[in-house]
Structure formats: structure tokens, C-alpha cells
Amino acid sequence: MVHGYCDDGDVDKARFLFDCMPEKNLLSWNAMIRGDCQNRRPHDALKLFCEMRGNVDVEMNEVTVVSVLPAIADLSALDLGGWIHEFVARNQLDGSVQMR
Predict the structure, then answer these.
(1) Given its phi and psi angles, is residue 76 left (phi above 0), alpha (psi -120 to 50 degrees) or beta?
(2) What is the pTM of this model?
(3) Which pLDDT tens digit goes with each residue over 31-81?
(4) Any idea what DSSP says for residue 99?
(5) N or C end of the chain: which has fewer CB within 10 A?
(6) Which value, in Å, is the radius of gyration of the alpha carbons in the chain?
(7) Which positions does the entry assign to PPR repeats (predicted)?
């Protein structure tokens, strides 16, 4: 549902649902980060990404990285871009992931 609301441009409704989730899984984190980026909310996407980094219950994957890259680029967040680069190299993530 988070993904659907974001695709329709209703990011506030998506965020409300996301925030109400008692347990957030990787799919919900990725959908919300991607939705923030798609709807021109790079600050929100980066804030959520940083929150996800601190969450021990969820491990980032290739989709997470691809989802947050537009926000990093929009805000010229070079320090976070460097961290992402190191994360990808350290975890040997698959570089073939594409988002539509």
C-alpha cells in the first residue's frame, strides 16, 4: 500500500501508513525511500535512509541503494555518497539492479 500511495503521489498518506506499521520490513523501508525520491522529497528520503541505517532489524540491499541515490544526487550529499560506495564494495552488492 505504501508503494501504491507513493506512485499516486500521495506521499503523506504513504508516510502515515509507514509510520503506523508496528514492524517495518525491507520492502516497506525501500518503498517509502523510493516514494520520497520519486515525489521530490530528497530530504525526507535521506532522513528515512539514515533512520534505516540505525535499525538493527533491517539489512539494506541493492534496491535500498538504488532507491536512495537520487536523493543523494539531488542534495549533493557527497559524504553519504562515499558511504554508499564503501557499503556496496564491502558487501559485494549486485550492480545490475535497475529501478523503473
Answers:
(1) left
(2) 0.88
(3) 999 999 999 999 999 999 999 988 878 989 999 999 999 999 999 999 999
(4) -
(5) C
(6) 13
(7) 25-55
Report the amino acid identity of residue 14.
A
Q: What is the residue extent of each domain of the chain?
A: 2-91
Pairwise CA distance, residues 42 & 69, whole Å: 10
Q: What does the pLDDT read at residue 42?
A: 97
- H-helix or E-strand containing 59? none
Residue-level pLDDT at 66? 92
Query: Does 29 score more than 90 pLDDT?
Result: yes
Q: What's the first-to-final CA gap in the chain, in angstroms?
A: 18
Residue 28: φ, ψ to 5°: -70, -40
